[in-house]
Prior knowledge:
single chain; 6-stranded mixed sheet
Amino acid sequence: MKKDTYYFPVSFRKLVLVFLILASISVPAFCQYLEGFEERMTEFTLNNGLKFLVLERHEAPVVSFHTYANVGSSDEVKGITGLAHLFEHMAFKGTETVGSKDYHAEAKAIAEVDRLFEEIKAEYRKDEDGDPNLLLVLENEFQQAQQEAGEFIVHDEFEEILTREGASGLNAYTSCDATRYISSFPSNKIELWMSLESDRFANPVLREFFKEREVVMEERRLRTESNPQGRLFEEFFAAAFKAHPYGEPVVGHMSDIQTITRSEAENFFRQYYSPRNLTIAIVGDVEPEKVKKLAKKYFGAIDGGTKPDPVETVEPPQLGERRVVLSDAAQPILLIGYHKPEFDHPENAAFDVLTDIVSEGRTARLYKALVKEQKIAVAAGAFGGPGNKYPNLFTFYAVAAKGHSNTECEQALYEQIEKLKTEPVTQEELKKAKTRSRASVVRSLASNSGLAAQLAFYQVATRDWRNLFIELEAIDNVTAEDIMGIANKYFTVENRTVGMIETKPAEN
Length: 508
């Protein structure tokens, strides 16, 4: 897949002017700006439950599409971790009509591959009672069967059709909360996109499943198992969440990836990729009535299925500090995380403002204190995560400077946290944070693709895309007392998890 790129439909000079104007306007003026969006927005839901958001922007003959599947790694259970991410890979493998020379023959070959893999799994389960010679025979037959199935494949046909017809920004990614599929096209290719996108979610063929699984396994090796920071984050979140699936890695556990089957992936698709669990945002040079007609034609016949239930497991209150210390031949890194509410919560605006005050830029509190003044760190800040659909973490971090330690950084961070509890942030800090929040919204509106992503996210996360704008009112109403309130409520010893890498000498 190509790296995501955004198309800017106005000239750079005009964009800068719009940016400067909107970043400085008041919240009431933003409400008027929202009214302008509402005039150009068309919303409709097909009979099968698939929601569409269509925003007209006629500055250039291009259109961006954002398909938001409300499923991520938090929807997995033990045994199939990593499946949401793996399915994202499989969604580009084509359909019954795209990607195959002879689908009926290919389907038989795929069934043989699956049969052999199940026999291999069964033989492995026997442990010492298994037959090594039989296992060797099965693995050879399995490799041969994959080669035979591969003879029917037209490799990368799905992506090649898209790029040949002018697609740009073709991308997809999986998080704890969602899987998103992104693309932009010339506006005269809307029907082509409708045809291909509906086909891949109505008739997906998970071809090359086991080869793609190997790709994901290598991805895990590179990003986690061979990466000190990756290992730290995985252990840190696992310690912080003992019940909720936010404690599981998005890429999955290696043993699960190794044993996931195509049938499990197909079941996962049927459960979570029903139209009722999808939202599609379309932004650009479009005619809403034409889009609605095409949507009914191509997506309307897909079985609506049932909307999946949300995750029912609730992370219980933490009763005491948890610590994870990894010894590694890597730079010291410190994480201090506190449990906090989900994105769609009244206190979220205060956390947004707090993040800006302590972490945004070289004048932010943490950078100023730890990096510029005390010179004990080379980086310091804060972030939320790993997801936001459910209660998550507010995490402070610091990367120790040469000759300094995690212990020094930890003490310095606690001093800054205590100040948040006892000393109100200044009005100047609040003003700057709110101005930057407005500027951030403007940046998200600059491109068709970026705006489509924001609209889809807010529609799913808050049940109304308008909250993309209305959230500014909540941010504008945040007070110094609100910041002190959340600091005292959440930043407690018993509610925190500490993770760090302690440097050990490299082995010769």
